[in-house]
Every structure is written in structure tokens, then in C-alpha cells.
Model the fold of this input.
Amino acid sequence: MQDILSLLSFSDGGWGTALAAGTLVTLSLALTTLPVGLFLGLGVALMARSNSPRLRAIATVFTTIFRGLPELLTLLIVYYGGQILIQRLMAAMGFEAQIQINAFLAGVIAFGLVLAAFSSEVWVGALNTIARGQYEAASALGLTKWLSFRLVVFPQLMRAALPGLSNNWLTLLKDTSLISTISLVDIMRQTNLAVGATKQPMVFYLTACFLYLILSAGSGFAFAFLERRANRGHVRG
Amino acid sequence: MLRDLLGLVINLDLLDRYGWRFLDGVVVTAQLVTISFILGGVLGLLLGLARLSENLALRWFSGAYIYFFRGSPLLAQLFLLYYGLGSLRGFWTDVGLWWFFREAWYCALLAFTLNTAAYQAEIFRGGIQAVPRGQREAAAALGMHNAIIFAKVVFPQAMIVALRPLGNELILMVKASAIASLVTIYDLMGVTKLAFSRSYNFELYLWAAVLYLIIVECIRRLWAVLERRLTRHLKMGESQPVQAGWLSRMTKSALKPNA
Done:
């Protein structure tokens, strides 16, 4: 027991500092991906609800592909495919160089696409809850399109969307563990390194699981707060 | 003729070299997902019932189980089982289970089963809770046993609610099973990585993408059929024209001379 605690300690020979750094990487990856995926998802949702059949078709194809592909495959396609694409582009412009895509960036793009596909469904559902009269009343008050979205539609949208988005966020948080396979040093990768060095897989993989559980629990509190805030103007019944 | 047409879309040389391997990969993925989904369903149903039981210990245990497996990544759980439990060789040899934890295949099956059980437990719990109380009371008034009430009255109605989320969970399992490739299992993803590391041809990843999309689409179609079958008694009132299935519609339109 003493040994295990010293393995996880923050002092010399302990892996505490390394695991904390990994946790920071995991969190910053997820937090960077979140706005990217949510905005893209909202865009896809607006396309899915538009009058143009072409835009609707694009939205359908987008969600079908990125909801259907394994996240690991999406990540590898973005990572390797992006490298090949950039190298071809550079070669076409006359540069010859070996280019490595930054793993963090590949993660943000790949997980952003997946999050966009899943959150667009949530956005569509939330947009459907907003009655037509709200738009009409807003325009009767003389609000511009942007202002009526920001002041009238968006606050109601968030109220309906938050529970779904919190699920999307938890999935994203867990999916980021896949980034360890393209050697970004997040919780999972740091754990693998620790296991390699100490030969204590039980201890470290359990620790990793609990780190993710702590992050999930923390997100639970954050979303409960956000939901209370989004509901503050809402009278039940 | 067919080959020439195929050659327009894909690299035939690659197809000759890796085609059969990819099919093997699909089979391995299908086995992995089917077995763990069914075993996970049985375990999930038990956990879901435990979650609803009056016994505090059962409720607490199933709650903690579900929280653990839904709150941490499947990747971490798989490594915990394969590398973590696999490191306790002495212990497993003593209890005679070393053959199980030695194999990546069994560890992956176990990890996926335990993981999907947690998700399915929540689905079954929701479905069972959605059955109106009056159904149970009416069945009890007819003098049925508790077990019969569950099997004949509650469960079939719960399944109608649970079916769609179960389909989603199955699709999520197909996608998640790609992780098995990280513990040396040659499923579709594993085969793709192996072929890519030998040929450095990016087209292979696109094959895998298409194959995964086809698997997911097949499941969606299968589930639509299942759903229509399970809810067929609910449509009695409305007189609906008999809709042919998608397969017969497709074959019909394909066979029509000038379609």
C-alpha cells in the first residue's frame, strides 16, 4: 500500500506530476474541441432545417458519415490523410518536405467533426421546440435577425439543448483517450508510460479510470449549474 | 468485366493482396460485437433489475457499477483488463483461469461485455419504468406470478421502448470495437492498420470507412424491420397499405425493365 501511494505521489519517483500534466492535456484538448464541434454542429443543424434540398442533403451525408465511423478511424484518417494531403499540396507548389501534423490539431479536427455530427441532432431537436410565434413576435418588435436569435431564440435553445449537449461533452471527454494512439501525452498515454516504467498496470490503469471519473463528475456539477442558470427565467407548468 | 468496373474505383492490386483479409476483419468485428452485445444484454438486464430492486445493497452495487463503466473510457477499461488483470499471472494460474486472461480476444470480449452491460442496464431500466403501473396491477389482479408478470406483461412492453436505444447502443459498440485493434486483435480496424503499415496506401483507410458505414447501415435497416415487427399490434386501428420491405422493393425496381 505504501509503495502504491509513493508511486502516485508528486515527489521524486512518483508519477503524480506526470499524471496531472496528462490530465491538463486531456482537459485542454476537450475544451478546445468543444466550441469547434458545437458551432459546426449548430451550422449543420441549421443546414438540416433549411429549405434548400442541397443543404439538407449535405447535412445528412455529414451526420451519417461521422456518426457511423469509429472515432479511432476518423482520427487516423484525419492524422494520416491530413499529412498526405498537405504533402501533396506542398509538392504541387514546389516544396519537398516531410510534414508531421500536430497530434493536438488532428485531435481537435477529428473529435470536432464527430462532436458536430452528434450535437447537430441535439441542436435540431432543440430548435424544433421553439415555437414559430417567438420568431414572429421578435420581428414584430423590430428586432433584426441576429438580435432576435441572440436575445430570443438562443436563451430558449440552450435550455432545451443543455441536457443533450452534456451527454455529448461526456462522450467527447472519454473519446479524447484515443488521442494517446497518435502519441499525444494525455492521461492515457501518460499512464501507458508509467506502466512501462513501473510494471504496475493494475495501479495505473485504475488510477486513469478514476481520473476520468473525477473529470466526468466535475462536468456533472458544471452542467447542473449551467442548467439551473439556463432555467432561471422558466416557470414550471 | 466486373473487375474492370471495380478497377475504376479501387486499386485492384491492393484488392488482390488484402481483400480477403478485410473480409476476415469484418467477420472478427461482427463476432466480437455480436457476442459481447448479447452477453452484455443479459448482464445489463440483471443490472437494470437490480437498479430497480428494493434491496439497498443491490441498488447501490448496480449504481456504482454503471457509474464506473459509463464514466471512464472503454480504452482504459480494456487496458485495465488486458494488461492489469493479465499481470496477475500467478493468481490466475492458481484459480485455473490463466488461459482466459492470457488471450487478448477473451479480454476484449470481457471488456466490451462489461462496458455495454452498463449502458444496456440504463436502457432496460428506462424501458421497465416506462411501463404503466396499472399493467402490473391488472396482471396481479388476474392472479399471475411475479415472474410471469415480468415475462408476459412488463418485459414485452419495456422492449418496445428499449428497442431504439438498444439499436443505437449496438451501433456504438460496432464503432467502439475498433479499439480492440490496440490489443493485437485483427478486427476490421486491426487489419486496416496492418495493411497500411505494409503498403503505405491511404486508400485502405477509406475502404475501412466504407465497410464500417455499410455495417452501421445494415444494423439500422435490421432495426427498422425489428421495430415494425414489435409494434405491429399498435397499428391495428389505422388502415395502412401493406408496405413491401426495402429488399423486395429494391429487387423489384432493379428487375423492372425500364426503371
Notes: DSSP finds twelve helices and no strands in chain B. The CA atoms of residues 29 and 187 of chain B lie 5 Å apart. The two ends of chain B are 23 Å apart (CA to CA).
